[in-house]
Design brief:
alpha+beta; 20 helices
């Protein structure tokens, strides 16, 4: 120790001395506090051992009686001999060597604390707390990690929660349901549901929809019970329809739609009928009203007229399930007779099962021939009353206001026969006539109230739109507070524009209105996910076989009237007691948008014999999923229908349209014959593709392309926007202005 101190500077020695003094004072303080306890227990025999680690080793003192000023270990029998000794000072008794050896036999050897080698460092608080109170040595606290690991292991082995008992539920399944929704209703993990579908060979995603049959198989596999409901059942439960008692029903005005061929005076007749309103109001044309108006007659009765743009809108409304019209007034010009659109209007009205009143207009003209019109009506199944039939025919003149009162009386007579009634003392319901977005007023919707009374402030649902009625305007643009049965009214307050033909209802509160609208939105999304609405020849007969559907609706368009009659007669012979072929419409000329709309509303099949559909009709057919089949041989058409009826339909052959070409010029070359200089307007033209040559919407050639050139080079295909030269196999009757339709036939295996 002396050698160590020789190398320490005086300043460091001074600091060490101060440190020693501080530790001695702290040890003395602790010793005084614990002295009584240590002495009474007899655990400590020598009080001088405490704090030994804090002191440098002193030189050995002679074995004489020494006064100590620190707490040590003393013999119990030792008594102080000096009366002047202060309290707390203990005199250690001198022991003999034999006594010390005897004591060491029965006492565990105490390891003396070695002097701290790090004398030049300060002690931390943690070191002071770890200092042993008996011998002054430092001891490290035991780590708690082993205890924690043991505790966790015990929990894993003995404290594991038991699996919950599986609960089997009754799962309500609609027609279409998403995988996520199915998992939620079964309270199963979506991943488990997807795994079950993968085992069935279906690769689906979480948000993908599946049909009710597949969902039922999955739910049964998981052990749940299944309850099937349709979307209509859910909607009925939301609407909670109340039936009207016979005592509450009162007579309502008839709703009339005026239809007819263009330029036959339909607009003039509507304007003339509106001018007979005894209430008066604005003068002017029908363009000033809201799409529907009500006329009060001198007798006090009312008639509601709908101003729809032709029979297309009428049928479009019917295709959405709405029956807005009670009576159809068919306008026929006395000088022109029945025209193409007149026939279409007749067929549309018959398909809707609406009674027809024929108004022969323009009888004031010199060349008017009403009898000729009546004879033409017989051809289309309308027998006038003066010829022994039940069709009301009135000769009128919209321009000269002739017999307008007779027409109105005929309408009231027909309405009386139909016994039209409604309950005005209930919440309103009806149909949407038209809707538009007004920049200043928002969504303006024209409604026709069919039952109940519509009031300002009602909560309304129209299709997928909903809202609160903020304002009501009548047909004269006047503000009103309510509208009864058969009354047309303009409504402000819907959140979006509904579609013409959507039904509207009044609900108790806005929450229910929003719930119904959201349900309908989800239903439309589900319908868009599955193509169950497409109309095809095979599906129609499949429905006839598996359901109560016993009619096959067909629309025939051909190049000449003789072809129409031949096809009609051939197909009618295929009718049996189980299935009847029903001709909804037959006509001459190309397939139009009106034909597509009628087919969509009646789920009919369209046959084009040597005629084509125009571009608008093709787009509409694609939108509605209506199938159009083209034939050039009657026997092929009849064979397809016969094969479908007998269940022996060959693989489906679908046409894939490649592109359309306009013929700009025709060149007569000695080497190649007639070559058509063309411009590709749509799609792609391929070499050796099937092609139809169309002139005035009539197919004059159906064969194959012989050659396809760009400048002088043979090419495999020519795309939109490029010019090319083409020749046909064994055909050269080509003229500028003709159109070419290139297509290919694709065979698809039929799956039932």
């Amino acid at each position: 120790m002396e050698k160590v101190e020789e190398n320490i500077s005086p300043e460091e020695q001074k600091r060490i001395a101060q440190e020693k003094q501080r530790h001695e004072e702290e040890a003395k303080k602790r010793s005084n506090e614990l002295k009584a306890i240590l002495l009474t227990k007899g655990k400590v025999k020598n009080l001088n051992t405490i704090g030994a680690s804090l002191k440098p080793k002193e030189e050995k003192q002679p074995e004489t009686e020494v006064k100590k000023d620190i707490v040590g270990v003393a013999d119990k029998e030792t008594k102080p001999t000096d009366t002047n000794i202060k309290p707390g000072v203990i005199i250690a008794k001198k022991k003999t060597k034999a006594e010390i050896e005897e004591e060491e036999k029965f006492t565990a050897p105490v390891k003396k604390a070695e002097p701290d080698k790090r004398v030049n460092k300060k002690l931390s608080v943690a070191q002071v707390m770890m200092m042993d109170q008996e011998d002054g040595t430092f001891r490290r606290n035991k780590s708690s990690s082993p205890f924690k690991r043991s505790k966790d292991k015990f929990k894993r082995n003995f404290d594991t929660p038991k699996d919950k008992e599986k609960v089997f539920r009754e799962v309500i399944l609609p027609d279409v349901i998403s995988v996520q929704e199915l998992a939620n209703r079964m309270s199963e993990k979506a991943a488990d549901v997807i795994k079950a579908l993968m085992k069935m060979g279906m690769m689906v995603t979480l948000n993908q929809s599946i049909d009710a049959d597949t969902a039922e198989l999955i739910a049964t596999e998981f052990g749940h019970k299944v309850k099937r409901v349709t979307a209509e059942d859910i909607e009925k439960s939301l609407l909670s329809e109340i039936e009207d008692s016979p005592e509450s029903l009162k007579t309502r005005p008839p709703v009339v739609t005026v239809m007819g061929h263009v330029d036959h005076g339909k607009t003039s007749l509507l304007d003339a009928l509106r001018s007979t309103d005894v209430v008066g109001g604005e003068a002017g044309g029908i363009t000033q009203h809201i799409g529907a108006y009500q006329v009060k007659l001198e007798s006090g009765h009312y008639i509601t007229f709908l101003d729809t743009p032709g029979h297309e809108a009428f049928t479009a409304m019917r295709s959405r399930g709405a029956k807005a019209t009670d009576i159809v007034v068919l306008v026929v010009a006395a000088d022109d007779g029945i025209m193409q659109q007149t026939v279409e209007a007749i067929n549309h009205a018959k398909a809707a099962e609406v009674p027809i009143i024929v108004a022969i207009n323009k009888i004031d003209k010199p060349d008017a021939d009403a009898n000729r019109v009546k004879n033409e009506l017989l051809i289309h199944g309308l027998v006038p009353e003066d010829m022994g039939g039940d069709t009301i025919v009135v000769e009128v003149s919209a321009k000269k206001r002739i017999n307008l009162d007779k027409l109105e009386e005929s309408i009231l007579l027909q309405a009386e026969v139909m016994d039209l009634k409604a309950n005005p003392n209930r919440l309103a319901k009806g149909v949407v006539i038209e809707a538009q977005v007004d920049k200043g007023r928002g969504v303006a919707t024209t409604l026709l109230v069919q039952n109940g009374t519509l009031r300002n402030g009602d909560f309304i649902v129209a299709g997928t739109a909903y809202g609160k009625v903020k304002a009501l305007n009548n047909d004269k643009r006047q503000r009103t507070t309510e509208a009864g049965p058969s009354a047309p009214v303009e409504v402000l307050g819907l959140n979006e524009a509904p579609i013409a033909g959507d039904e509207f209802i009044i609900t108790a509160n806005e929450k229910l209105s929003k719930e119904i609208a959201e349900f309908r939105i989800n239903k439309e999304k589900e319908r868009a996910l599955i193509s169950s609405r497409k109309t095809s020849l095979e599906q129609l007969f499949l429905r006839a076989k598996n359901s109560h559907f016993k009619e096959f609706n067909i629309i025939i368009k051909a190049d000449v009237q003789g072809s129409v009659e031949a096809i009609s007669n051939s197909l009618m012979k295929l009718s049996t007691e189980e299935i009847q072929v029903k001709m909804l419409h037959m006509g001459v000329g190309g397939i139009t948008e009106s034909d597509i709309t009628l087919a969509n509303a009646s789920e009919a099949f369209i046959v084009g014999f040597n005629v084509r559909a125009n571009s608008l009709a093709r787009d509409l057919a694609r939108k509605y999923g209506v199938e159009i089949r083209y034939y050039s041989v009657i026997y092929n058409l009849v064979d397809d229908v016969k094969a479908a009826m007998s269940g022996m339909l060959s693989p489906t052959i679908k046409e894939h349209i490649l592109g359309y070409v306009d013929i700009k010029e025709v060149f007569d070359l000695s080497k190649f014959g007639k070559v058509a200089g063309c411009y590709v307007t749509e799609g792609t033209i391929k070499k050796q593709a099937n092609a139809r040559l169309i002139r005035d919407n009539v197919v004059i050639f159906d064969g194959k392309l012989k050659a396809l050139k760009r400048f002088k080079d043979d090419v495999k295909e020519v795309r939109t926007g490029f010019e090319c030269g083409i020749t046909f196999e064994n055909y050269e009757d080509i003229k500028p202005g003709d159109k070419v339709e290139a297509y290919e036939l694709i065979e698809e295996a039929r799956t039932l």
